[in-house]
């Protein structure tokens, strides 16, 4: 009889939301039979709601009926599937306790992002110690406490949430970020024909990304041209003002096919450069997407990145929030394309070694073993950090 896992929640799907698809791919690669019980998430509406805290109670109330529908469907799904474990994908803060009450199997909460960390510490939308900040901390803590196991994306983030919530260390674990759309074959890296380094940035422009630092650095290096996909309106205006013809400003968002085209055309991908503590704890999706496409990355020098990629030769780093240091690194790379060529040649193998589907599958087996050691005791492969 196959091992069975049920994904249950209100997650987002489609372009820009790879996390749950990644989790599912990893489970299936581990030989797990995966079912799901889902209602749609908020999608792109989350961004506008996050910027307007006064809308949070209304958004919660509007989702109340949707949550009730999910929980009704859950009862029938559990009877049909009889899962050995249940996974509540991000964002599941408001669902994990209710799901846990309705299932006998152990429940893992893929927290992925702390609400407190995102809104209070990274985006600084409310002050620490404020009513909203304290509410968000309680929200994180209650959601984590309700699950049998809480999953984050890096050991550093797992440690952060453990300290934030005060829950025991063995209540937390991690599953690496992963590209569910990783191509089977990468487009070969081509050296600059005109001596100009093509640098690609894609992302929403949240403080974690440190886009102002990147733009300021590129402005100091004449032979670097930036392609900017996303960013805030202020970021895009700043890029146009400081870079002029050395920036190609794309749309706010592109689908996966267009992103693959942009990755194929660039020489180097920009990661994150923000000054918040969160920068130190993440391996950004853009880094993983780039390596999967066979492209090297430049990003902030952080413990999370160093854990996997220090010495790999595929990621170049500079201090976070240091435009001068980043400019120096970019200038050196633009003047030494051979160094980039060597990095590009090793990029995809580094992805497969640290973030690929088989690595995720092996890590999943360890996580499932912790959740249900009797059921998931077979087929375990050791995974190192």
Query: Uncertain spans, ≥5 residues at pLDDT below 50?
Result: 379-385
Write the H/E string, N to C: EHEHHEHEHHEHEEHEHEHEHEHEHHH
Give Rg in angstroms.
21 Å
Q: Tell me the strand order in the biggest sheet.
A: 2-1-3-4-5-6
State the major sheet. 6 strands, parallel
Gist of the model:
With 385 residues, the protein is of the alpha/beta class.
Walkthrough of the structure:
With 385 residues, the chain is of the alpha/beta class. The chain folds into two domains: 4-178 and 356-371, Rossmann fold, CATH 3.40.50.2000; 197-354, Rossmann fold, CATH 3.40.50.2000. It contains 15 helices and twelve strands. The chain has helices at residues 19-29, 45-50, 56-81, 96-102, 115-122, 131-146, 155-165, 211-219, 233-243, 256-265, 285-292, 303-309, 323-334, 337-354, 357-371, and strands spanning 4-9, 33-38, 85-88, 107-110, 149-152, 172-174, 197-203, 224-230, 247-249, 268-270, 297-300, 315-318. Strands 2-1-3-4-5-6 form a six-stranded parallel sheet, with helices on both faces. The protein has a six-stranded parallel sheet with strand order 9-8-7-10-11-12, sandwiched between helices. It is globular and about 65 Å long. The two termini are 31 Å apart. The model is unreliable at 379-385 (pLDDT under 50).
Please tag this protein with its features:
385 residues, alpha/beta, Rossmann fold, 2 domains, 6-stranded parallel beta sheet, 15 helices, 12 strands, 45% helix, globular, disordered C terminus
